[in-house]
Automatic annotation (TrEMBL), chains A, B:
GO biological process, one term: sodium ion transport
Keywords: Antiport, Ion transport, Membrane, Sodium, Sodium transport, Transmembrane, Transmembrane helix, Transport
GO molecular function annotations of the record: antiporter activity
GO CC list: membrane
Domain Cation/H+ exchanger transmembrane: 12-382
Cellular localization per UniProt: Membrane
Protein's membrane topology: Multi-pass membrane protein
Record flagged with keyword NAD: no
Name of the featured protein: Kef-type K+ transport system membrane component KefB
Transmembrane segments: 6-23, 30-49, 55-72, 84-105, 111-133, 145-168, 180-202, 223-253, 273-292, 299-322, 362-383
Domain RCK N-terminal: 403-490
Length: 595, 595
C-alpha cells in the first residue's frame, strides 16, 4: 500500500486549476485544459509528474461523484419537453458515429469489443461543453440551444446504458445463451431494484427525515454518498460498471425527494467535490496515459477516427433531424453543436484502457479526438448559426417564457398590456379586488400572497422566464425575487426599487439573487400608479438613432429635466421587452415611455 | 498500485454513519461511535473489513481537510475575549497531563520520543466533543462553557505546535546543535512565510477576486484546496507534519478575506467533505489498528495512562485555574469538561503509529483512553456543574448578549423597558422621529434601514445574542432576521408575524433562519401599538403554579375569551425574557401581559 502523496496531489490540482482557468478564458470547457495540461506535465511530454495511488484513488472516487452529479443535473421533465427534435438529434448523433466508429476499428484489425467501445466514445455528446458556448454565442433563447441540451442529455443516457450492457458482457466473457440470459436477468434486476429504490424508498426516506426535522445538511450529504456508493457497488455486483449506479443514484435525487433547498445545497457540494476537486485529477491523469507516438505510428487510424467522429456526428444529426421539419440547416447547426466530447467519453475510454479492451494507442486517439472535436464546436457552431441567422432561420424558443408580474396595479397592467402582445403575462396580487380588476381587463391574475409558495405554484412560476416585481414595497419585491430565484429558478428578475429609504442592504440582496432594477436605479412608483389610475398620462414612442445604454438614456432624460417613466423597449421586429436599468437600446429600437 | 475499492469504502462509510448516528443519539460525539465501530467490524474483533489503499488515501486526505476545517472554525477574536481564564485552563490542562504522560511511558521503559507523543495525546483536549454536551446540559450561556471552548482551542493549538516541533526533530533525527538550529530555522521560515501569506497575500487575492466579481463558489473551493494542500506540503518540506500546514491554512481563511457568504459556504463544504465523508474513514480505520490484547498484556500501562489522563487533566486545570479567582470548584467543572479527547488526539496517535514511534499497543491504549475519557465527560460535567448550580456558583456569561430590537414603536419600547432591566437593549428604526422619541426616553436607538448592513454594523449587531423584530410588516421582519442570521450570526431571532395574509412562504423562511415567533403564532400588532401609544393599557403580572408551554398558556387565555398580549416571562431570579411561542414557563415564573 502506497501512502498519501501530498506533493503529487498538489501539483496535479494546481495544474488542473491553471489549465482549466486558462482554457476557460478563451471560452472552452475546463476539461479540455485539464486533459492538455496532463499531456504536457505528465509522462507523454515533460514527465514532470507521474501517477500514484493517491491520484488513482481520488480520481476514481471523483469519477463516481461526477457521474452522480451529472445524474443530479438531468431533469427528465426538461427531456420530456424537448421530445421529438431532441430525441431525433440524440439518436442520429449517436447511432451513426457509433456504427462508423465500430467499423473503422474492426476494419483496421481491432477486436469487435474495441470497436464497440470506440463506437460509444465517438457517439457520446458532451453536455458540459454546451452551456458556456451558448451564452457566448447569445444562443440561449433559441430552439437550437434547447435541442442541443436535450440531445446531449439523451445521447449521454443512451451511451451509458449501452455501455452498461456492453461492459457486463465483457466482464462475463459470455458466449452461450444461458449466460447471456443470466446477465440480462441481472441487469433487469439491478434496474428494477434501483428504480424501485429511487421512486418508492428514497422519497419515503426523504419524508421520514423531513418529519424528524432533520435539517443538518451534512447528514443528507453523507446519506447521499451512501446511496451513490451503494448503488455503484450494486451495479458492480451485477456486472455493470460502478459509474452507472452512481449516475442512476444521481438521477433519483431530485426536487420533491428532499426539501428544495437541501437538494440544491447537496447538489452544490457534489459539484464542488467532483468538478472542483476530484474529477479534475481524473482528467489530468487521463492525459498522463496518452502516448504521442500515435501521431507517427497510427496517424491513419487517428485521422479516420477523428474524421468519423466529425462526419458521423454531424451527418447523423442532419439526416435524423429531417423528420422534425425544422430544416436541415438547423440540423447542421445542432450537429456542429453536439460534436464536442467531454467527461463521459474520457471516463468510458479510461475504463476501456483499464480493462485492457482498448490499447494505449486507441485510448490516446480517443483523448485527442475529444480535444479536437471540442475545439471545433465554437468555430463550427458560430459559422452554422450565423448562416441560419443570415437566412432568418434562427428560431427563438424558450423553455421558460413569459412574464410573471407581482402587483396588478394600473401601472403594472399598462406594462403588462405591452408585454402581452408577444408574450404570456400572468399577474399575482395579494389584493382580491385588484386581482379581479385585472381579470376584468382580460389579464390572468392569481390572487394570493407572493411569499407563499402555493401562490407561486398556482401561477406556475416554474414555467416563466422573467419575473417583474412592481409593488411599492422594496422588501416584498426583494423577498419575492429571492423566493422565485431560490425555489422556482426563474432566470430573469427585474424589480422596482423605491427610493424610500437607504437601500445598501437591498442592493446586496438584489445582487445575491442576480436581479436587476426595473425602469431606473430607483423609481418612486406611487405617482406613476396614480397617473395611470387617473388616466392622466401620455404614452410617447421614440426611435433611437444610435446604440445607447438604458442607463444613459435615463440620464439624458434627467438632463433634459423631463420626468418620464420608460416602460418598454420595442425591437425592430416589434417585440417588446421591459425597460430595465442594465440593458441597452440598439439603433432603430424604440422606447415607449409615459409622461 | 491497488485500484479503487468501492465495496470496502461503502461498508466503512455505512459503518461510520451507523456508529456515529447511534452514539449521537445518546449524546456522545460521532467520532466515538466511529472508533468503536472500527474496532468491532475491523480486524480487532469481527475482521469483517480490512484496510485498503482506497481507505488509507481517502482517510489521509480527510485528515488534512479536517485539520483545515478545525482551523477555519477557530476565531482568534473569540480566543482574545476568553483571555485569562481560558488560557489558564488550557495551559494547566495541557502541561500537567503532558508531563505525567511522558513520565508514565518513560518510567515503564518506553523511549522518550514515545513519551513525548503520549504526553501530547494525553494533553490534548477535544473541541468537537463540547458543544453538543453544553447544549444538553443547558450550559451554553455560562462562563464555564466559554472557558471550556476557549481552553480547548488554545490547548489544541498548543498541542499542534508542540507536536510540530517534535515531529520535525523526529524526522531529522537531529542530535547536534547545528542540525537543531537548522530545524528551528526552517520552522521559523515556515511560520514566517505562512503568516505573511495568510495576513498579506491571501487578503489581496480575496480583494482581487472580489474586484473581478468572481462569484463562483467552486472556484473559491478549488483555490482553498490548493492553499490547504500547498501549505500542507510546505510544512512537510520543512520537516513539520502536513496537518499543521492544513490547520494554519484553515486559520487564515476568515471573514474579511473573502465575502462573508463565500467564507460561510466554503466552510460548509469543507465540513461536509471532511466530517461528512472522509474523516470518518480515518476514525473507523483507526479502530482497525487497535489490538484488544492490551487489556491482558498491558493492562497496567493502560490503567496508568488512562489514570494519568483523568488526574492530570482535571487536577492540572483546577490548580492552574486558581489565579483566575473563579473558584476551584469552577476549575473542577472546567477540568471535567476538558477531559474528553477527540479528533486531534487520534490523528496524532495515528501519526505516531505510522512513523513507528509508538507501538501498536500504545496506539491501542491511546484509542481506548480517548474513548473512556470522552465517555466520562457528560457524567462528570453534569455532576460538577450541578454541584456548582446547587451552590449558586454557576456564573452566566454571554459572549453575545442583549437584545437588538427592530422597530421602536411604543409597544417595542414597553417590551424594551422590561428587558433593559437586566440586559443591554438597542433599537433600530427607519423613522427618524420615532428613533428620536426612543432616545428621548433613555433608550439607545440607531436610525437607518434595517436591510442596510451599515445600519446593523452601526448597531454592533455582531455583539447581540437576540434579535427581536417588532414591525407590523411581516416581510421586513423576515428579511431582517434573515440578514442578521446570515451576516451577523445572531443566534436567537424572535419575530412578530401579523396574520395579514396567508403566510405559508413566510413560515418556511422563518424556519430556514431558525427564527421563531414572538408573543404568539400570529399577532396583529397594530391595536396593541395603538393602546400603548394612547397609554390605554394595563400591565398584569401572574405567577405560574406549574410548568406550562407558552403555547398552552396562550391557548388558555383564548379559551377564557381574554384578549391579552403576553410581553415577558420573569424567572425566579427576576430576569425577564421575551414571551415567545416555543418557550415554556417554569413553576413560579411570572408572566407579564398587557390587556
Amino acid at each position: 500500500m502506497e501512502g498519501f502523496d501530498i506533493l503529487n496531489l498538489f501539483i496535479v490540482l494546481l495544474a488542473a486549476w491553471g489549465g482549466g482557468a486558462l482554457i476557460k478564458r478563451i471560452g472552452y470547457p475546463a476539461i479540455l485544459g485539464e486533459l492538455l495540461i496532463g499531456v504536457i506535465i505528465g509522462p507523454p511530454l515533460l514527465g514532470f509528474v507521474e501517477s500514484s495511488s493517491t491520484l488513482v484513488i481520488l480520481a476514481e472516487a471523483g469519477v463516481i461523484l461526477l457521474m452522480a452529479y451529472i445524474g443530479m443535473e438531468i431533469n427528465f421533465k426538461d427531456l420530456g419537453k424537448a421530445s421529438w427534435a431532441g430525441l431525433l438529434a440524440a439518436v442520429g448523433g449517436f447511432v451513426v458515429p457509433f456504427a462508423l466508429g465500430y467499423y473503422v476499428v474492426t476494419l483496421s484489425g481491432g477486436t469487435s469489443m474495441a470497436g464497440l467501445f470506440v463506437g460509444i466514445a465517438v457517439g457520446v455528446t458532451s453536455l458540459a461543453t454546451k452551456s458556456r458556448i451558448l451564452v457566448d454565442l447569445n444562443l440561449l433563447d433559441t430552439r437550437i440551444a434547447y435541442v442541443l441540451m436535450a440531445g446531449a442529455l439523451i445521447s449521454d443516457t443512451l451511451a451509458l446504458i449501452i455501455f452498461a450492457g456492453l461492459s457486463s458482457f465483457i466482464d462475463a466473457g459470455a458466449v452461450n445463451m444461458s449466460e447471456i440470459l443470466l446477465i440480462i436477468g441481472k441487469i433487469i434486476l439491478f434496474f428494477g431494484f434501483s428504480t424501485a429504490f429511487g421512486l418508492y424508498i428514497l422519497p419515503r426516506i426523504g419524508q421520514w427525515m423531513a418529519k424528524k426535522n432533520i435539517e443538518n445538511r451534512t447528514t443528507y450529504f453523507t446519506l447521499l454518498l451512501l446511496i451513490v456508493f451503494g448503488l455503484s457497488e450494486l451495479a458492480e455486483l451485477v456486472g455493470l460498471h460502478g459509474i452507472l449506479g452512481a449516475f442512476i443514484a444521481g438521477v433519483f435525487i431530485k426536487d420533491g425527494v428532499f426539501k428544495d433547498q437541501i437538494t440544491k445545497d447537496i447538489t452544490h457540494v457534489f459539484h464542488d467535490v467532483s468538478v472542483g476537486f476530484m474529477a479534475p485529477i481524473f482528467f489530468v491523469t487521463a492525459g498522463f496515459h496518452v502516448t504521442l507516438d500515435v501521431f507517427q505510428t497510427d496517424l491513419g487510424l487517428l485521422l479516420a477516427i477523428v474524421g468519423v467522429a466529425f462526419a458521423g456526428k454531424i451527418l447523423g444529426t442532419v439526416i435524423f433531424y429531417l423528420p422534425s421539419r425544422n430544416g436541415w440547416r438547423e440540423g447542421l447547426a445542432v450537429g456542429t453543436g453536439m460534436n464536442g466530447r467531454g467527461a463521459v467519453e474520457i471516463v468510458i475510454a479510461g475504463i476501456g484502457l483499464q480493462k485492457g479492451i482498448i490499447s494505449q494507442e486507441i485510448f490516446s486517439i480517443l483523448v485527442f479526438m475529444a480535444i479536437i472535436t471540442t475545439l471545433s464546436v465554437p468555430v463550427l457552431l458560430t459559422w452554422s448559426t450565423n448562416w441560419l441567422k443570415k437566412r432568418g432561420e434562427l428560431v427563438k424558443q424558450f423553455s421558460r417564457e413569459g412574464y410573471l408580474i407581482l402587483g396588478a396595479n394600473p401601472l403594472a397592467l399598462l406594462l403588462g398590456k405591452h408585454l402581452s402582445e408577444h408574450n404570456k403575462v400572468v399577474f399575482i396580487d395579494a389584493n382580491k379586488g385588484i386581482c379581479e380588476n385585472a381579470k376584468h381587463k382580460g389579464f390572468n391574475c392569481v390572487h394570493g400572497n407572493i411569499l407563499d409558495e402555493a401562490t407561486l405554484k398556482e401561477a406556475s412560476a416554474k414555467d416563466f422566464r422573467t419575473f417583474l416585481a412592481l409593488t411599492v414595497n422594496n422588501e416584498i419585491n426583494l423577498l419575492a425575487s429571492q423566493l422565485v430565484n431560490d425555489t422556482f429558478y426563474i432566470p430573469e428578475k427585474y424589480i422596482v426599487i423605491s427610493p424610500i429609504t437607504e437601500i445598501g442592504g437591498s442592493i446586496n440582496l438584489l445582487q445575491s439573487v442576480s436581479a436587476s432594477t426595473l425602469f431606473s436605479g430607483k423609481v418612486d412608483l406611487q405617482p406613476w400608479i396614480q397617473k395611470t389610475q387617473d388616466l392622466n398620462y401620455k404614452e410617447v414612442e421614440v426611435t433611437s438613432d444610435k446604440k445607447i445604454a438604458t442607463r444613459e438614456w435615463v440620464k439624458t432624460q434627467f438632463s433634459k429635466n423631463k420626468t418620464v417613466l420608460p416602460l418598454v423597449i420595442v425591437d425592430i421586429s416589434g417585440v417588446k421587452r421591459p425597460f430595465r436599468f442594465n440593458d441597452s437600446i440598439e439603433e432603430d429600437e424604440k422606447v415607449i415611455y409615459i409622461v
